[in-house]
Amino acid sequence: MNQQVHDRQIKNSSAVQAPRCQFCGTALNHTLVDLGMSPLCESFLNFEQLNRMEAFYPLHVRVCENCFLVQLEAYVSPEHIFTEYAYFSSYADTWLQHCKAYTDQVVERFQLNEKSQVVELASNDGYLLQYFVEKKIPVLGVEPATNIAKVAIAKGIPTINEFFGRECARKLVEQGKQADLIAANNVLAHIPDINDFVGGIKILLKPQGVATGEIQHLMRLMESNQFDTIYHEHFCYHTFSTLEKIFAAHGLTLFDVEELPTHGGSLRIYARHEDDTTKPISDRAIDLKNREQAAGFTSIERYTNFEEQVRETKRKLLDFLIKVKREGKTVVGYGAPGKGNTLLNYCGIRTDFLDYTVDRNPYKHGKFLPGTHIPIYPPDKIQETKPDYVLILPWNFQDEIMTQMSFIRDWGGQFVVPIPEVTVYS
């Protein structure tokens, strides 16, 4: 076979296999960033699994030139990822404070009471719905992870254990569970069929109801270099402009938006039925859409320079770790979040750089991080070993963590935050 024929076969093979946008079906021919191969970020290992083969999948993120939805291929089914899940929302105090404030706000704004119905999609361990229960407002959680749904039920939070979509929504409506408020916090990224999910919201929402969702803002992700928030559990990454198109395709209008500091920069969107004229489109929604357009997020060229920015961050982190390890310093991690596993696997950081990490979640204690095999201990381990540096992997909670772990300064320990670039705090 000559080289021309070989090259043509490769080109044709790539064209045939090009993934397509999960929203509009356009071929995904443009790369945002390729982070190589990585294991599922929540697939923590037991000691017995350390010598077994691990599954690694591509972390190749593409952008649709038609609707500008940024996305990963669904290499693994949601059932495989989320049926048994290691992330419990209730272990971050600042997140719980955020959720309580949201509850107070929406109850007052939309006049919710004991006759209302609140439904949360991907309700986790009841972290949010507990605050509606305190106000005597009827709630229902929809949570696909069996282990987490059991925790919520044990707390007294009514929860059904299944994946949400049109079929689930129809069943709930038949049972009289149509919602005055639907909450969907940090779940849209986890959906490999966004049309089914948003279509389900349309079915479940009462004619005058409101759906809210909190979504990491792609504009902030790229501006702040938050590439570690890319992992297989996140199938999509959103701008407000793209979300507006997706909801409109299902007869829903985004009438308001708030820009939040959570998770490095998130949006809280507010949706209503398109024929509900009681909720006009806010100035905030119009302004954000205009700012995204001015920043280039409706042009494919905006997405093409991100990869080199990510590579430089990797180089800087490795430079720092090589330097301090050559000086004989000890470095440990704080946290075992999904973003940490993306960062460590992409940068090739294992126990040669990071002795161990700690986490408040007992579910993770005694286990090992996927891919890197770094052991996970309770937070008390840091007091025992007195490391020189603590690398904060869940950097979105860095202020809370530095307050909780301030005692490391007693022996001269310092904190390291890797994103948007390596920063050391004494």
CATH fold naming of the largest domain: Rossmann fold
Let me know the number of strands. 17
Major beta-sheet overview? 7 strands, mixed
Low-confidence segments: 1-16
**Rough outline:** globular
Distance between the termini: 62 Å
CATH superfamily of the largest domain: Vaccinia Virus protein VP39
Question: What portion of the residues fall into strands of 2 or more residues?
Answer: 15-25%
Q: Roughly what is the average pLDDT, rounded to an integer? A: 91
CATH class of the largest domain: Alpha Beta
Q: Return the structural class.
A: alpha/beta
Side by side, the strands of the main sheet go 6-5-4-7-8-11-10
Cα-based radius of gyration, to the nearest Å? 22 Å
Structure summarized in a few sentences:
The chain is an alpha/beta fold and about 425 residues long. It has 14 helices and 17 strands.
How would you characterize this protein structure?
Keywords: Methyltransferase, Transferase. By secondary structure, the chain is α/β, with parallel strands linked by helices. The protein folds into 3 domains: 3-74, no CATH class; 89-303, Rossmann fold, CATH 3.40.50.150; 315-425, Rossmann fold (3-Layer(aba) Sandwich), CATH 3.40.50.720. Helix content is 34%, strand content 20%. It contains 14 helices and 17 strands. It has helices at residues 3-17, 78-82, 93-109, 129-134, 146-154, 166-174, 194-204, 218-223, 240-248, 283-294, 306-326, 338-347, 380-385, 398-404; strands at 30-38, 57-63, 70-71, 118-121, 139-142, 159-160, 179-185, 205-216, 236-237, 252-260, 266-273, 331-334, 357-358, 376-377, 389-392, 414-417, 423-425. β4 (118-121), α4 (129-134) and β5 form a beta-alpha-beta unit. α6 (166-174) packs parallel to α7 (194-204).
